Amino acid sequence: MLFSIFKHGTILHIDAAQKEGDSVKKRLVVIGNGLAGIQFLERLLSRKPSSFEVTVIGKEPAYKRYLLSRVLQKELPFEDVKLEDDGWYLKRGVRLFKNETVVTVDPLVRHVKTDRGRKMAYDLLVFATGSNPHLLPVKGAGKEGVMTFRTIEDCMTLMNAPNHYQKAAVIGAGILGLETAMGLVQRGIKTTVVHHQPNVMNRQLDRLASEMLQEDLERMGIHFSLSKRAKEIIGTSHVEGVRFSDGTSLTADLVLMSVGVKPNIELAKKSGLDVHRGILVDDFLQTSDPSIYAIGECAEHRDMTYGLTEPILEQAEHLARTLAGYPEPYTGSIMSTTLNIDSVNVFSAGHVLETEETRTFQWIDPIRHIYKKIVTLHGRVIGAILYGDTSEAALLAKLVNSLAPVSEIPSNQLFPEQKVTRNTLALVPKDERSSKTAQS
């Protein structure tokens, strides 16, 4: 059986009935040895173990990047970060070229060339090139003591930071910024999180949940300087502090920028593929070239790029199904978030901010510092926040992902004492809530 994908005037035929043991194998090359590429291959080869001649080319070893912050926080040993050892590739007949980078892709003759002069032909090519940390274009960003947190090498540097630094400024109060700040605090460095918005994790949380989170993190030793925009990294050759656009400044000898990532698209762009913020892909994760696919942080699907684990795994599954001959369109992922900081329980999924059209179910326990919120639109669940008690996170993620009807919300389970409203959330003033919390 053949299925066909029509793309930019070309029809790509993939044989769904190719039998295992066939002498002709498709030459599959994966650029990137991270979570996206490995999870894709795990799923593909479990379905078609003998249908592909697989080559993986990666600059870094395979590891679970999302666990590095927990290593920095002393919660996990380095051994837990490792994704796969060499035996994993050998067992599956995968050729692995480590510490090697693809520098050229020629779609016309279908081959890639690496920085070591190696040339390899392909029938199918998968970009899983991930992303690079974004650096703020501020004066002094090149000074010694300015860094990002992305790789194992970065993690090792930060683990040794107490030997060289005393005060740190983490620019960015997103997930990674907060996790990194906690790691530095755990290692004895006085750390201030700087953010241009008045609320931490403002993309994932509403104001109330954000304030509750900030209070808990302050109790754990993190300082905050909010509604501040970095204008300049001050110092001579080494960092001495950060100057803000309002004229104020913060003393620091280590500045860590955690202001997001940029999809790694330069190779794809140079190869003639259509790119925007990421490598443009359709609902089958196929690029503008019918023989080339892209998944993970480097891919842009329906104007969205994803930097979280779950969407990456979903894309890996969909592409594996497609190349195995059982295509199922990928329609996008619902964003859900948890924070990897011990004793802090926070969960967010979907659209969590109210509009004129949304209706909200909410329950607040200021004494125990628990907050639950469900946002609905036209009778469907579109978003949720849990703070302090995330025991129902899996349930809410399922409701949000399926846009479940309001009738499926287990109100007795989620909202004790049945303190449920269907109106726009009335924000509890911070000073009132703080005083109640203090009384506990």
Brief overview:
Helix content is 23%, strand content 28%. With 440 residues, it is of the alpha/beta class.
Top keywords for this entry?
440 residues; alpha/beta; FAD/NAD(P)-binding domain; Enolase-like, domain 1; 3 domains; five-stranded parallel β-sheet; disordered N terminus; disordered C terminus
Largest sheet: 5 strands, parallel
Question: Order of strands across the widest beta sheet?
Answer: 5-4-3-9-21
| Global morphology | globular
Mean residue pLDDT: 89
- CATH superfamily grouping of the largest domain: FAD/NAD(P)-binding domain
Q: What is the radius of gyration computed over CA atoms, rounded to a whole number of angstroms?
A: 24 Å
Helix content: 10-25%
* Intertermini distance: 66 Å
Write down the CATH topology of the largest domain.
FAD/NAD(P)-binding domain
- What CATH architecture label of the largest domain applies? 3-Layer(bba) Sandwich
**Overall domain count:** 3
- Low-confidence stretches at least 5 residues in length (pLDDT < 50)? 1-22, 418-440
Total number of helices: 11
For the secondary structure, the number of strands is 27
Highest-level CATH class of the largest domain: Alpha Beta
Strand content: 25-35%
- Label the structural class: alpha/beta
Give me the oligomer status.
single chain
